[in-house]
Amino acid sequence: MCGIVGYIGHRDAYPIIIKGLHRLEYRGYDSAGISLYNDGLKVYKKSGKVSALENFAKDLPVAGTIGMGHTRWATHGAPSDRNSHPHASNNRKLTIIHNGIIENYATIKETLLAKGHVFKSDTDTEVLIHLVEDIATATGIDLKEAVRIALNKVVGAYAIVIMSEDDPNLLIAARKGSPMVIGVGEGEYFIASDATPIVEYTKNVIYLNDNEIAYITREELLIKNIDNTIQIPYIQELDLKLDMLEKGGYDHFMLKEIYEQPRSIRDCLRGRIYPQQGKVQLGGIKEYAEKLRNLDRIIIVACGTSWHAGLVGEYLIEEYARVPVEVEYASEFRYRNPIITEKDLVIAISQSGETADTMAALELAKEKGATIFGVCNVVGASIPRITHAGVYTHAGPEIGVASTKAFTSQVTVLTLIAFYIAQQRGTITQSKLIEYLTELDGIPALVEKSLKTNDRVKEIAEKFKDSRNCLFLGRGSSFPVALEGALKLKEISYIHAEGYPAAEMKHGPIALIDAEMPVVFIATKHSSYEKVISNIQEVKARGGRVIAIVTEGDTDVKEMADYVIEIPQTGEAFVPLLATIPLQLLSYHIAVMRGCNVDQPRNLAKSVTVE
C-alpha cells in the first residue's frame, strides 16, 4: 500500500519524482523518500507527508536524470525517518524502494546478521536489498542476476525498484502481487505503482505481470520472468486525462468525486443499456451467457466499501435473476476451505483491481474450477488480468481514500449484471425490463438532484459534528447503504459509527439509544416503509435523535424525525444509488468541521495491496 515512482531519461528526475509522489500520496502518507544519482547515490527521506520531504530537500543537491521515490504506508517498522524508504544495502552502493511484504525476512535477516550485516531500520525491505548485495558479493555475479536469485529466495508480495552506484544507467523493477506500470517515452522510461504519475509524460504503458523483472536503461527495456526467460512486453495506451487527477476547484478530492457521480454512473451505463428494446449488453461477459443460464450459485468476494456494494448486488441478483448469492469478505473467504464447484460463479469487486485479499480469494476459486468475473475500475490492473471475464466501472481515477463514486459505480455495474443474468435466464419479462431500464437510464439525473441536498446536509452536520457515536439503520437493500454510511463517517471523521438492519436494533443496539446518540434511518417509501416507521418510533420513545433519508414529499416521517433529508422518488432497486449521496455528504461535512484530513484519513491507504 505504498506509492512508487521511478525515472530514467534526459530530464531532471527530482521534479518528476516529487510530483509523482504527490499524485500517489493516497497510497500511503506515513513517510516519503527519494534516491538520486549524481556523483554517487543521494538518499533523502523524511517521516510525514511528501511536503515534509520536499521541504527537507529544498536546500540539498537534487540534480540527476535517474532516480526513484517512495511514499509509505507502514507495515514492518513504525513510521519514522529511519524506516522510510529508500533503504540501502550494507555497503551503501545499492538502494531499494518496495511496496509489499517479505514474509520470510526474519529468517533471512538472521543469516545476514551472522555474516556481519548491520541494519539501519526495522523493515523487511532493508533485508531484501542486503540479500541482493550478499548474493552478488558471494558469487561474483552481476546485479541483474543477483536480484533474480534474491527474488527466488523471498516469500511474499513485492513491487520493487533498485538503483546501483556502480551502474548509474540502470533501474531494475520487479513485481509479484503488488502493482507496477512502466511508462515508455522517447529515450526515457517512467515507473509507478499506477498510471497517475505517468500520464503527464506519456500515454504508452506496460503493466508488469507477476514474477517479471524489468531491466531499464535510457536506451532499452528488457523484461524477463523470474526463471530468466525473456518476455515480450505488451504496450497499451492510457485512457486517462490529466484533469481527472486535479481537484478542479473543489476543496477536496472527496467532494469532487461525490459531485462526479452523475457522470460516473452515466459513463457506467453508456453503451450497456437499451431501454426501448429492454436489453442489457455486457460485452465483457457476453461469451459466458450460457454459463449464466445454468448457474447454481454466485459468490461475491470483496473488502470494505466494495463488500457493501456486493451486498446490494446480492439483493438485486436474487430478486431479479433468482440465483442464490453469497457475499464474502475476501480476507476470510480464503482461510475457511470454502465449498466451491464448477457450477459456481465468483465475482470479485475491487476499485483498484489490486486488493491482495480479493486476489487471493480469486486464485483459490480458480483452482477449484469456478468461473471468475471481475468488477473493477482500473484498466490493466491485476484482477481484470486473472479473471475469466468482467465489467469495468468506468468511474475514472478516485484519489480520495474514502470511496464514493467507486461505490455507486460498483452498485450500477451489479445492477446491470443482475438484469443481464435475469435476461439470460428468462426470469424477467420484456415489459418489466423496459420499465426498469428506462428508470435506470434516468438515475444520473436523479443523483444530480440528490446532490442538491448539500446545504441541508451541511446544516445537519453542524448539529452532530461533536457526536461520539452514531447508528445507521436500513432495511432490504438499504441495509448495505446504512453500513456504507457508517463506514464513511468513521473513516474520515473518526466518530464511532455502526450500520445495522433496522429490525436488528431491538436485538442489542437499542440499549445505546439516548439523547446523545444520533440515529440515521434510510426511510424511503418502499416495501418496508411501515416497519421502518415503527423502528423510528422506538428510537424516539427512548430519547434518540433521528436523521431520516426520505422520499421527496414524505410527511409521515417528517412528523417523527428531528431532521429529514429528501431524495427523489425512484424504484426500490435504485434507492441505494440515491440514498448514498446525502450520507457521503454528511460524512464529508462533519469531517471538515472537525478539522480532519478528508482525503488522507489517518492509518488508511487507498489500495490495500498487502494482507
Summarize the structure.
With 611 residues, the chain is an alpha/beta fold. Helices cover 36% and strands 23% of the residues.
What keywords describe this structure?
611 residues; alpha/beta; eight-stranded antiparallel β-sheet; 26 strands
Question: What do you see in this structure?
Answer:
The chain is 36% helix and 23% strand. The strands form 5 sheets. The chain has an 8-stranded antiparallel β-sheet with strand order 3-2-4-1-10-9-11-14, covered by helices on one side. A 6-stranded antiparallel β-sheet has the order 5-6-7-8-12-13. A 5-stranded parallel β-sheet has the order 18-17-19-20-21, sandwiched between helices.
Task: Present the secondary structure layout.
Elements: E1 3-8, H1 13-24, E2 31-37, E3 41-47, H2 50-57, E4 66-72, E5 87-88, E6 94-102, H3 105-114, H4 124-139, H5 143-153, E7 156-164, E8 171-176, E9 181-184, E10 189-192, E11 204-207, E12 212-216, E13 221-225, E14 236-237, H6 253-259, H7 261-269, E15 273-274, E16 279-280, H8 289-293, E17 297-302, H9 304-321, E18 325-329, H10 330-333, E19 344-350, H11 356-367, E20 371-376, H12 382-386, E21 389-392, H13 405-425, H14 430-441, H15 443-450, H16 454-464, E22 469-474, H17 478-493, E23 496-501, E24 518-522, H18 529-541, E25 545-551, H19 556-560, E26 563-567, H20 575-593
Parallel strand pairs: 17-18, 17-19, 19-20, 20-21, 22-23, 22-24, 24-25, 25-26
Antiparallel strand pairs: 1-4, 1-10, 2-3, 2-4, 5-6, 6-7, 7-8, 8-12, 9-10, 9-11, 11-14, 12-13, 15-16
